[in-house]
Design goal:
This protein is of the alpha/beta class. Helices cover 19% and strands 28% of the residues. β7, α3 and β8 form a beta-alpha-beta unit. The longest helix is centred in the N-terminal third of the chain and has 17 residues. Bound molecules: citrulline. The site of citrulline (CIR) has 18 residues, from loops.
Amino acid sequence: MVKFNNVIVRRPCRAVCDGITSAPELGQPIYEKALQQHDTYIEALKKCGVEVTVLEADERYPDSCFVEDPALITKACAIITNPGAESRNGEKEEIIGAIRKFFPEDKIEYIKDPGTLEGGDVMMVDDTFYVGLSARTNAEGIRQLGEILNKYGMKCVQVPLEKVLHLKTGVNNKYGMKCVQVPLEKVLHLKTGVNYLEHNNMLVAGEFITKPEFEQYNKVVVPEEEAYGANCIWVNETVIVPEGYPSVLKAVQDLGYETLIVDTSEFRKIDGGLSCLSLRFWA
Ligand code: CIR
């Protein structure tokens, strides 16, 4: 089992209201409320016994509070990823400074073009890293990650994410209308639907309930109507659970964990959750 002693977060910027979203019907995040929720998140992390490094807001990148995506930290090295979302790719340059405070240059690795990878697609289970093949993380990114991890005696397992056909409208036929079906992933990142709580316990929702890769774990199934609640984080025997997911909360408590609840409603509006708001590690 790991024990984290350090966490990096970045304050949400005003532009967080314009973060990428797959759910515009939820409305835009309210900046002040996002800041309050971020404060509560930091307090919860501190209660779990970690030192929290708080980076300044970066207005150039609306999604930059989701620091989990531009970097991945393991027990042996840090990896600067290569985010697949164009508007987020520059975030990798901005996280390096914080990583250098904890890791020497020879222990910082990089995912390079044409490989793409976002940390939200990576789930650590001891020395094994499960990686979602997603809209943001491609096969070459996973290959590079595997090579890096092998060098340090760790390994990676690719987990393809399922796609569904979405209707997309365009405007280029005779009547000015067009309708096409495009295959899109059901979830943004791997950890949108599966999260490891140590002690062989894994929270699983949706497609991850039946994935063969996770058969060996004690799977705690999250009901469909609470799927967002699958994104909980384990921090030193406490599990932080998003507010408003009572059956997830109960399931986690029944496993014997201490729990803390944090409201993430503003981040949810732009597909963000508890895990993406921090980099949790030991150094
Ligand atoms: C994005 O689409 O990139 C952000 N709006 C949400 C990122 C969430 N990150 C994560 O789950 N690791």
